[in-house]
Amino acid sequence: RFESQTGEQAVKIKHQLSSTENCREYILMGWESIPYEISAVHFNEMIAPLVGQTIDACHRILKSADLSVKDLSAVFMVGGTSRVPLVREMVQRFAGDVPVYSSVDLELAVAMGAVMGGGSREEEDEGEKWLQLGNKYYNSDSVEGNPEIAIEYYKKAAELGNITAQKILGHYYETYFNLPGHTSESLKWYRKAAEQGDAEVQYMLGFAYYHGDRVTRNYRVAAKWFRKAAEQGDAAAQDKLGFCYYYGLGVPQDYEEAVKWYRKAAEQGNMIAQNKLGVCYETGHGVLQDYEEAAKWYEKAGNEEKKISVLKKVRR
Fold this sequence. Notes:
Pfam families: HSP70, Sel1. Belongs to the heat shock protein 70 family. The structure is a single chain. The chain has helices spanning 2-17, 40-64, 85-95, 106-117, 120-138, 147-159, 163-175, 182-195, 199-211, 219-230, 235-247, 255-266, 271-283, 291-300, 304-315; strands at residues 22-29, 32-39. The protein is built from 15 helices and 2 strands. The protein has 3 domains: 1-107, no CATH class; 119-196, no CATH class; 216-316, Tetratricopeptide repeat domain (Serine Threonine Protein Phosphatase 5, Tetratricopeptide repeat). By secondary structure, the protein is mainly α. A two-stranded antiparallel sheet has the order 1-2.
């Protein structure tokens, strides 16, 4: 429910900032509503890297296929996101002098999406429809609130491949894991979401198999799911995969590979990985021993004691 709420708030903020310089929304936390303010400038700073990455990916695909923007009729389905001036500007810069189509009309966007994506869009929309119905009935504060009906709608959405619904069902059955059959039902839906590429759930599955949480502990399976999430940039999964390589849990022991994944997580600000990278530099596992580099990573991790300790070795 929190995920659904924040998603709705994000859409509201996007729409408001398309015509105003500042936006104020409230996020429900328990019994209180927490105010959240954001400016159009800050919002643009947040989304610019993501939009840039998306456009860059499109550029690489076109280049690898030896196509041009014109070859694709220059149709960029920005959909609702085209409300944001920054997005329109960045897409237009990419397209150059080729006209770019964008729409704020939801029905038109869906229709165009169906034309561009074949029949898959229809199934996605059907799943989204059941998801929204589930959200409506799951809200127990409303007159129509009925969690049992909501779960049935979520199942319909999940069976059509809706990742959000699959995650909701996984969490629902996880909450009631002490009831017969619910553990396997929870894992079933989490696994479906993970197999569709959801990095968050991939990490959760890895964590479950690593710790033997409601499943038989299996380091090999844990490492498999950690890798899938890590390759998508999940810092926590990168740290865990590095740990698996460091100790040879589910994968062959490989200090250099451990350092590689620790570094990826550490560079994203993961303090646990930063500390482990400091250990690697201090011990010379997977890298050339370097006390000053170790001290640098200990400092980033907030481990002042280890930083002081390793710097004493430099002065000897």
